[in-house]
Amino acid sequence: MTKTTTRPLAELQADFVRVGALLKQAREDVETLRRLSTAEAQAETLAAELEAIKVQMDRAFVDEDKAKEDAFIAGIKDVRITEGDARENLLRRTFTVQVTRETSDGERTRQTTTQRTGLTSLKPEEYVWLLRHPDRIPTCVLALADDPRTAFQTYFGGKKRGYFRGA
């Protein structure tokens, strides 16, 4: 007669539960390892995709700002600035601002022209229009800086102070 040695049932049941839990953990680890093995390539792909979205968002912000600016200056057809006596220094020099606007009542379009004295009489939308058309800004103002916006800021700051720095 062959004698087989078997372990007690309680011990076998405990081992069954222990090994089952270890197998479950091993399978989870295999899944984690599989996921981690592609993580570097996926991170590079996601970084490139994120950069592309950022570029698109930057472009969309620029487009949105331009659309708002277009709406802000809508109706301005032209702004002409004429200088007074150029022999006067820039602080005392007079400028005449002539603004032509186009309005429509639904049936017809008409143009109106207004004239004011001084660059400080510029309305915000006229100032924005001039920044888009720097050829309409007096050369003596443009000479104050490398770009039109800074030139205007320098001019208005000098007028407020009563002198231009470095002049």
SSE ordering: HHEEEHHH
Radius of gyration: 37 Å
Shape: rod-shaped
Query: What portion of the residues fall into strands of 2 or more residues?
Result: 15-25%
Please tally the helical runs, counting DSSP H or I stretches of 4 or more residues.
5
- Counted beta strands: 3
Task: Give the mean pLDDT.
Answer: 90
Describe this structure as you would to a colleague:
The protein has 167 residues and is an alpha+beta fold. Helix content is 54%, strand content 16%. It contains five helices and three strands, in the order H-H-E-E-E-H-H-H. It has a three-stranded antiparallel beta sheet with strand order 1-2-3, with helices on one face. A hairpin with a 4-residue loop joins strand 2 and strand 3. The chain is rod-shaped. The mean pLDDT is 90.
Briefly, what is this?
By secondary structure, this protein is of the alpha+beta class. Helices cover 54% and strands 16% of the residues. It has helices spanning 9-37, 39-73, 124-132, 139-142, 148-161; strands at 76-83, 95-104, 109-117.
Task: Provide tags for this entry.
single chain; 167 residues; alpha+beta; three-stranded antiparallel β-sheet; 3 strands; 54% helix; 16% strand; rod-shaped
